[in-house]
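pasting for the record
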Amino acid sequence: MRHYEIVFIVHPDQSEQVPGMIERYRQMVTSRSGIIHRLEDWGRRQLTFPIQKVHKAHYVLMNIECDNETLAELEHSFKFSDAVLRHLIVKMPKAHINPSPMMKEEKSKSLMEGRGEGAPRPAEAPAEPARAERPAA
């Protein structure tokens, strides 16, 4: 069996169906003794350019290990699903199980927001200049 990285984007009106779609694709892979090494739901994101007059879409990443029949079935389901705007399947040399750079970026953003680094700091009161005392005349 070979390793593949699959990214597909779903029409934003169909975002509620994404968990069901993911489960259906997971069943396709695991029912034929395939393995899912990484599954990430990136959520709704802005597209670089509009696709079918749509400016946002729901992104999903999967790293799987499967045979050619399973891959063909997955690709067929992507092609004939009205909800899937685009998909990309790339053959990989090995399994990738670590979080993708996209998820690392999301985690770092959420960690920064949690610590308050992104929040504006309260203004500090300006220090009063030291007053020189006048000698008595």
